[in-house]
Design goal:
The protein is α/β, with parallel strands linked by helices. It is about 50% helix and about 15% strand. Helix 4 links the parallel strand 4 and strand 5.
C-alpha cells in the first residue's frame, strides 16, 4: 500500500501534509515530491515512471493557479490521480481563492480523468486514497469501516438529544 504525493511548490507543504497525516493514520506508506509541472517537466515524468516501478498504487497531486500538475501526471500514468486544488496565498496571489485551480483540475478533458477534492482539502484526498486502496487490501478496509463506525457513533452521541 503506497501513495505518492506531488506538489509544485514548497509553499504547499503544510496543506499537502494533511494528506500524508491521513495516510499515516491508516498505516499507508507514502512518499512526497516537490516538482513543478512547468519548471521541471522531464523530472516529473521520470519521477512518475519511478513511482510506478516502485509499486505505488495511487497518486495525490496538489496544485494552485493553473493547476497543471495533476493533469500532467494523469497523462503520464494509468494510476488513479487525486487532484487537490490549492489556494494561492503568496504575494503573487491572483485573488481567485483557488477557484482557478479547482476548475483546472475538475475540467480535465475526456479519457484522462483526475479525481478532485475541494480547495485545500488534502485530508479528503488522503481519505479517498485510502478508500481506493481498501478495494484491494482487506485489512485497510477493516480500518476504514471501523473509522466510519466511530464517526457515526460520535455523531449519535453528540447530536441526537440537543438541549437549548
Amino acid at each position: 500500500m503506497k501513495v505518492a504525493i506531488f506538489f509544485g511548490s514548497k509553499s504547499d507543504k503544510d496543506t499537502m501534509k494533511k494528506a500524508a497525516d491521513i495516510l499515516s493514520e491508516f498505516g499507508v506508506e507514502y512518499k512526497a515530491f516537490i516538482i513543478s509541472a512547468h519548471r521541471a517537466g522531464a523530472l516529473l515524468k521520470q519521477t512518475v515512471e519511478q513511482v510506478e516501478k516502485e509499486g505505488f498504487e495511487v497518486i495525490i497531486a496538489g496544485a494552485g493557479l493553473a493547476a497543471a500538475l495533476p493533469g500532467v501526471i494523469a497523462g503520464e500514468t494509468t494510476l488513479p490521480v487525486i487532484g487537490v486544488p490549492l489556494e494561492c496565498v503568496s504575494d503573487k496571489s491572483n485573488g481567485l481563492g483557488g477557484m482557478d485551480a479547482l476548475l483546472s483540475i475538475v475540467q480535465m478533458p475526456p479519457q484522462i480523468p483526475v479525481a478532485t477534492v475541494g480547495i485545500n482539502n488534502a485530508k479528503n484526498a488522503g481519505y479517498l486514497a485510502v478508500q481506493i486502496l481498501s478495494i484491494k487490501y482487506p485489512e485497510l478496509k477493516e480500518k476504514l469501516v471501523s473509522f466510519r463506525k466511530k464517526l457515526a457513533d460520535d455523531a449519535a452521541a453528540t447530536g441526537l438529544d440537543v438541549k437549548f
